[in-house]
Amino acid sequence: MAELISVDALIDQAHKDTGIDAFDAETYREGLEVFVEDFNDGIAIGRYVDAGIQRAKDDTLHYLRSRLKIAGYLKQNPELLERKIERPVFVMGMARTGTTLMSNLLAADPGRRSPLTWEIDDPVPPATPETLYTDPRALARLEQERAMLAANPAAGKFYRGSAVYPNECVFMMAGDFKTLMIESKGILPKYRDFIFSTDMTSSYEYHKKFLQVLQHKAPGVWNLKKPSHSLFLEYLFKVYPDARVIWTHRDPYTATGSLASLIQLSHNMFMGKVDHQWLGENYSWQQFQHVNRIMDFRDKFGEDKIIDVHYADLTRDPIGTTKKLYAELGDEFTAEAEAGIQGWVDDNPQDKFGVHEYKLAQFGLSKESLAPHFERYLSRYDVEPEGK
Fold first, then answer.
1. What is the Cα–Cα distance from 379 to 31, expressed in whole angstroms?
2. Burial state string for 227-260 with b = 16 or more CB within 10 A and e = fewer than 16
3. Which of 112, 214, 246, 357 is the 20 to 30 Å CA partner of 166?
4. CA 140, CA 128: separation in Å to the nearest integer?
5. Are the C-beta atoms of residues 49 and 268 closer than 8 Å to each other?
6. So what's the pLDDT on residue 62?
7. Dihedral, CA atoms, 13, 14, 18, 24, nearest 10 degrees?
8. What was the pLDDT predicted at 160?
């Protein structure tokens, strides 16, 4: 049997690697221990390949190092904790419903501030406005991407990302070990149940600290994106009471098939094979939770705390739809914003890297089996069907 992962050994290694002797808080430990216990259960039954086990260790160590670096920087610059995060914009919804597209369009406005992939990955020292796109760390990541796409051009079908594009809050919140991204590393039912039931306050508090570091020298009104913000809206508003939240809507059948297909990549990476039944059952359930928890929140707190954007409108008329969104956000849609967004659209046509092909039947699913679970959602919102 492969060697099990040790929480204490990884924490000790993170301290040695960074030279930083203390975390800002110990809240990360609970989620880390649940994840490691669940992953070790899989190691014990031979679920994970050696490369997947090493990747899990490396990823976990990266999240720990990053949190220590954030803690160290805040210790040196404690005044940053007093700097506000004002009127941040959060994009959320079911996975695979255009949250990435919406986030990229907002980020193309030079008057807005988004956490870029490279700076989430390597936040300390934080960038300046002049180095956001030219920092050696950004350029190195761009070169890695070019090599990756050259070796595997099909990878672009699944995710329209880049070192200098915005990335998901999951990679910041991983430092508190409460994020669905970690759940996708294999078959982890204990960790999944933990995420869907735990108090997420500490994760959003750490998210805020992360932004306070990133905005030290490059401030702005933040645009954030994570589909699973849908699950935790009360915690989000607890930490960010003036947040503005966007819900992207898309045909739930298409979105569910796309999500299950996407997670296949992670299964292959960590397990060397795909469990189609788990993908179908687990990720369709998660999609139901996303829409139902948003609707529950609206039923409790009112409709006006969330702005609706439809994927069909966004793909047909990205400029017009974004302009309408700005009006609902209460923000000015400047000429610079329109030019930046149009430039991004021109450079990133739909299916730029090919068509992402998948079928519900691959995962033991069908529209008929899913329909009862999406009835509440589809009866409440006029979502355009896509036919997949």
1. 36
2. bbbbbbbebbbebbeebbbbbbbbbbbbbbbbbb
3. 357
4. 17
5. no
6. 98
7. -140
8. 58
Q: How far apart are CA 294 and CA 247, in angstroms?
A: 9
Query: 180-221, pLDDT tens digit by residue?
Result: 999 999 999 999 999 999 999 999 999 999 999 999 999 999
- What is the rounded average pLDDT for all residues in the chain? 94
Q: Which residues pair with 91 in a beta bridge?
A: 225, 246
| Domains of the chain in sequence order | 87-380 (3.40.50.300)
At 146 the pLDDT is 85
Backbone φ and ψ for 26, nearest 5 degrees, come out as -100, 10
188 burial level (CB within 10 Å; 0-12, 13-18, 19+): buried
pLDDT in tens, 364-375: 999 999 999 999
Q: How many residues does the chain have?
A: 388
Q: Who has greater pLDDT, 225 or 350? A: 225
Question: Is residue 159's pLDDT more than 70?
Answer: no
What is the Cα–Cα distance from 111 to 223, expressed in whole angstroms? 11
In eight-state DSSP terms, residue 350 is: T
| CB distance 61 to 10 below 8 Å | yes
pLDDT of residue 359: 85
As a whole number of Å, the end-to-end CA separation of the chain is 42
In the chain, where does DSSP find H-type helix? 7-18, 28-44, 50-76, 99-107, 117-121, 136-151, 170-173, 180-183, 189-197, 201-214, 233-239, 252-271, 276-301, 311-316, 318-329, 335-347, 367-380
**Who contacts 81 (Cβ-Cβ below 8 Å, separation ≥6)?**
74, 209, 212
Q: Quick check: helix, strand or coil at residue 177?
A: coil
Return the structure tokens found at 312.
């069909």
* CB neighbourhood size of 1 (10 A): 7
